[in-house]
Amino acid sequence: MTMLFKEPVQASPDQIIWLERRGWVYELLMDFLSRPPRMSLIAQWRQRAELTHRIPNSRGGRRLRSYLESIPEQHFRSACYQEAEEYQRLFMGNQAVLIPCEGTFRAKRDGADAFACLSHIRRMYADSGVVFNKLYGESDDHIAMELEFMAVMAEGMRSRVDSSHLRHSCLELADTQIHFLEVHLLKWAPRFADELIRATNSPLYSGLAELLQEFLVYDLEQLRKWRAGMS
């Protein structure tokens, strides 16, 4: 058993592609759900999508990619302004349409203990050594913070595979991500995405919502397969 955990991690070609792309997708979702998108952010992700082709070929991914690629140059500034206004309408202020924080969302929808939920999330961040540089005072259970946590963990696992780290290190990272998806993100993000789809006519936010639903389920499935293959 000791020798098993000293073995470097082996990954199939398909797993390598998944490992390389998953952090990128979490970053994409986090960037657009964290704050009103600036013109530079939309331009950056449009260029990255065109150059890398990493947006998943799912329904939501195709919708999002099609929208980013179809914005006419002469209307780019006005389109970006409209998306920033839509973010504010959806998520900001006392009149916000949606609840972007897990504790409050689950307290209102399920009667969950919002403080206990937030405390558990903070413990998971601390136990994983993840500290966020919060520029806008986001709560630790904000959808963007939870997605950023997964992006950080995904990059950590990818880098360990690339550098042939010992197997137990990747096992710990996989277990943490599986637990976070099962206990937190997948407990509320799919319903949050459903509400977002119903609340907006924006192809940007409807595409992001569909991609969020699709990708979280897919990523958990892949993590479980990855974890089983290392056991």
Automatic annotation (TrEMBL):
Q: What keyword terms does UniProt attach to this protein?
A: Chaperone
Q: Please indicate if the UniProt record lists NADP as a keyword.
A: no
Q: Does the keyword Chaperone apply?
A: yes
InterPro entries according to UniProt: DMSO/NO3_reduct_chaperone, TorD-like_sf, TorD/DmsD_chaperones
Spell out the coiled coil positions from the record: none
Protein name (database record): Molecular chaperone TorD
